[in-house]
Structure of Tetratricopeptide repeat protein:
Amino acid sequence: MTHCTALYRAVVRPCLLFSSAAFVVSTLSSTHAAPVPALQPSQIAPSAKATSPAKPKPDPLQETSKALRAAKTATEARELERRAETLRQKGLSASTRLLLENADSSLKAHDYRKAEAALDNALVLQPDKAFIRRGRARVRYAAGDFEGAISDLGVALQKDPDDPLSWQLLSQIEEERHDMKAALAAARQVLVVDPLASNGAKRVKTLQAAVDGRPI
């Protein structure tokens, strides 16, 4: 009940006369009714307090990737790399995990067709997991399907552009395709997302020399 409604009901009360509703002033005579003072805006309570929208929770993977770009030591970088990879694999269903294990076993046995089939099925179950595409790119690369591998990495990096492993694999594939400029560009991107990546700076230097035609 608002302040305005409370005041109104204190002054006027309903009175039933022969089944008809009439209103009489309770404490005032019919000829000398005193005016009801107007309410000031400050006297009217707001119906509801304005609530600010809840802030979205920060994404743990994005926060870890940000920390990785700012890492000060190689030890810190390795720890953040492991943490980021763990976060990428978070939320996998039991079926997806089993398929990934099968793919890994098949890859070790050089059964690339079986490994790729397992990863195909894993992507059907959880297509949002970019690292699964990276895994299929690795299988395709091992099988000699460079174009298929690059296609997978393109999608993976579109979903997860901060993944240094995808950039490293792309650089490696492009080098084997003898596209040294593309290999160099991918290697440089590794250092953007992971400035202290193992051998990252050395690889950029080596590829730059190859692009420039200098002896390595």
